[in-house]
Amino acid sequence: MRTISLVVATWFFAGVESAQAQIERRQHEPSAFERRASGSIGVWALQPTGELHQNIHAGWGAGAAGLLRVDDRGWWAMRLDIGLGGYGTESKRVALSPTIGGRVQVDVVTRNYVVVGGIGPQLAAPSGIVRPYVNAGLGMQVFFTQSDVEGADDDLSFANTVNHSDWTPAWTTGGGLYIPLRYGRTPVLLDLGATYYIAGRASYLKPGSIEDLPNSQIRITPMESETPLVLVRLGVKIGR
Question: Mean per-residue pLDDT for 219-228?
Fold first, then answer.
């Protein structure tokens, strides 16, 4: 009887351990979405072209991209990009208020930004030491200028105002190279690329576009033109 009980207990616990192992294995198995999804993040240099180049200077920014492979091998994917960059800053130091006087000083910092985004297909070599890719799609650009009040001895903003904003749709086209840095289940690749935004007309500001007038009034002089620009990107891609 003891032998039978021991055999039954052994069989029972072995079955429990096997079931737990199968559950853990299933929990660690990536879903179809996880197997096909990847993403990249990086910094980029903003270079205006055409009419835009005549009005604003180059800038810097950062962005991210998400990719979803369409085929099993990874030749085709859908790509979604989003990023934020700045192309000009001006600052002045003033008293916090006439009531307080000049004892408390603050910095009024005005920054000019552009938000870029796009979605479309990407064709990429799925293997190799160097993996070229090209992409294209529909995109958009949002230009806005914001003034912040910061402490004179720190960069902490405690009040801000958006002085101007506008947006325009765009076509995007680009390409680059993926260079593997680490292989394995979750590979890491260096991402060197560029994206060209063929955009429509939009209004935007640059340093000097806002003029301070008496009685706390301001005069804003926006510029308007087509807004083509190139983003040159350096980042890392995580996933296949």
Answer: 95
